[in-house]
From TrEMBL:
SUPFAM superfamilies, per the entry: NagB/RpiA/CoA transferase-like
Annotated GO MF terms: acetate CoA-transferase activity; acetyl-CoA hydrolase activity
KW Electron transport (keyword) present: no
Residues annotated as domain Acetyl-CoA hydrolase/transferase N-terminal: 10-220
Recorded superkingdom: Bacteria
Lineage: Bacteria, Pseudomonadati, Pseudomonadota, Alphaproteobacteria, Rhodobacterales
UniProt organism field: Paracoccus chinensis
GO biological process: acetate metabolic process
Protein name, per record: Acetyl-CoA hydrolase/transferase N-terminal domain-containing protein
Keywords assigned by UniProt, alphabetized: Hydrolase, Transferase
InterPro entries membership: ActCoA_hydro, ActCoA_hydro_N, NagB/RpiA_transferase-like
């Protein structure tokens, strides 16, 4: 059963190959995705195949790619392998792309993730020809239900000349209602303060807006997000977690931290995940998190009841944890909030 409610938009359903044909050499393409979650899976693969065919025929074909952060092998990996990326921002972890960047074969701009959207809006990055964004579904009113990451999707949809949507049936429809899309970060003089003071504040809308006239193609998919599993905590990671827990306990005892601590911000990777896992056995209750991604350790904290609310821009879960969340999304929906990365990663 289709997740595209508007009849007029159903007329735009097509294959990934036909959608990729609307992207031209030299185009700047803004794609969804943040740490292997919520990135388009079909159109980039079709585009990579088209680029390889053009190269085989002796014709140049490369595009400029903007995303939220790192993505998955079907996007960065496929396009880099096809030598189809001329320029990449703002973050990359794909090994093929990394080698090309280090050899000077791919231009790269590594920038603070919260600054991508403002710089795009202010025109510093140039025009955006096409947005390719994965969503969970399209509501009867035309609003787009985000998937497992928000990243820069709001900005890509607003700035792009044309939009290609991937509707991924693998994403649980119970994701609807988890997101908080804030539209107050417009250009001056229309920009207003960000009225966010607690991780569980909701200041925006649950869905993404998109001018339906800009949507040129919709591709239906059914493919999982791709993230690597976390390594089990080793002796070093456990020691780091122990030192941090000891510090928290000391600060609570001295009255400098509340018993629920202050909102937690964690990095990405095995050590940060080990620290979060260590908090499961801590005495701290009613904790909150305002951070970049929700990892396995944060999921364990939510399940234990120690963590009350987690705010981020994306999931960054192991395959096992991703399947666990996706199968039980309705239970997690009211305890997590996914926001645009210009909010989740804001330096303030």
């Amino acid at each position: 059963m289709t997740r595209i409610a508007p009849q007029d938009l159903r007329a735009k359903i097509m294959s990934a190959e036909d959608a990729a044909a609307m992207i031209h050499s030299g185009d700047t393409v803004g794609m969804s995705g943040f740490t292997g979650s919520g990135y388009p899976k079909a159109v980039p693969m079709a585009l990579a195949a088209r680029i390889e065919a053009e190269h085989a025929a002796g014709r140049p074909f490369r595009v400029r790619v903007w995303t939220g952060a790192s993505t998955g092998p079907e996007l960065d990996g496929a396009l880099a392998k096809a030598d189809g990326i001329e320029f990449r921002l703002p973050y990359n972890s794909d090994p093929i792309a990394r080698e090309k960047i280090n050899r000077g074969e791919m231009d790269y701009f590594d920038m603070h993730l919260s600054q991508v959207a403002p710089m795009a809006w202010q025109g510093f990055l140039g025009p955006l020809n096409t947005a390719v964004v994965e969503v969970t579904g399209i509501r009867p009113d035309g609003m787009l239900i985000p998937s497992s990451s928000v990243g820069n999707n709001k900005t890509w949809l607003d700035r792009a000349e044309k939009v290609i949507i991937e509707v991924n049936r693998w994403q649980n429809p119970a994701l609807e209602g988890m997101h908080d899309i804030y539209y107050g970060t417009r250009l001056p003089p229309d920009r207003v303060p960000i009225p966010l003071t607690r991780p569980d504040d909701r200041i925006g809308e649950p869905c993404l807006r998109c001018d339906p006239d800009k949507i040129v193609a919709i591709v239906e998919t059914d493919a999982p997000d791709r993230n690597l599993p976390f390594s089990p905590p080793d002796q070093t990671a456990r020691a780091i977690a122990g030192h941090l827990l000891e510090f928290f306990g000391h600060e609570v005892a001295r009255g400098r931290l509340p018993a629920s601590l202050l909102p937690i911000q964690s990095g990405v990777g095995n050590i940060a995940n080990a620290v979060l896992t260590g908090l499961v056995d801590s005495p701290f209750e009613g904790m909150t998190a305002f951070t970049e991604v929700i990892q396995d350790g944060m999921l364990d904290l939510l399940d234990s009841g120690k963590l009350r609310m987690a705010s981020a821009t994306s999931f960054s879960l192991s395959p096992e944890a991703a399947a666990r969340v996706n199968a039980d999304m309705a239970r997690y929906r009211d305890r997590m909030i996914l926001r645009p990365q210009e909010i989740s990663n804001h330096p303030d």
